[in-house]
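thought: fold this chain, then report.
action: predict
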Amino acid sequence: MSSSYRIRNAEKKDLDEIVNLIVRLKKLNEEFDPLYTVREEVAEVARDYIEKSLERDDVFILVAESGGRIVGVIRVEIRSRIFYQPVFEGIITDLYTLPSFRDKGIGTALLDEAIKILRSRGISIIGAEFPPMNKIAVEFYEKRGFKPLLYTYFKEI
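observation:
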């Protein structure tokens, strides 16, 4: 398997492959905590989520393509921080690379390109949302200089 890949903006033609990656990511989250139990209709929800994301000005999606196949994806939302400076931040809501393509720099390349896009839009802060039990994500982001900034606690009621 070739490890060559290219990073590019997602297009509507990528929808099926992106949905597949997003579903895989959400099922991975389920492994870390039962509060992330995936809905039965997750594929339909993911399709709607990505379709709408592709139409939004405050969201961008990049893909990693290798051999004509989408092997990685990153989705970033630009959000307002109404009480704080800087006023806008980029939030990585989804980052996933197919297992057979991990440890080839694809996640880092997706992250680096997202940072480049955010900087070009005048945004100087980036965060990532993921389950705290996801040690792979914790290690990935901490290795790249991210630190915890906000905790959100949940409880089943």
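thought: worth noting. The chain has a mean pLDDT of 95.
final: tokens above.
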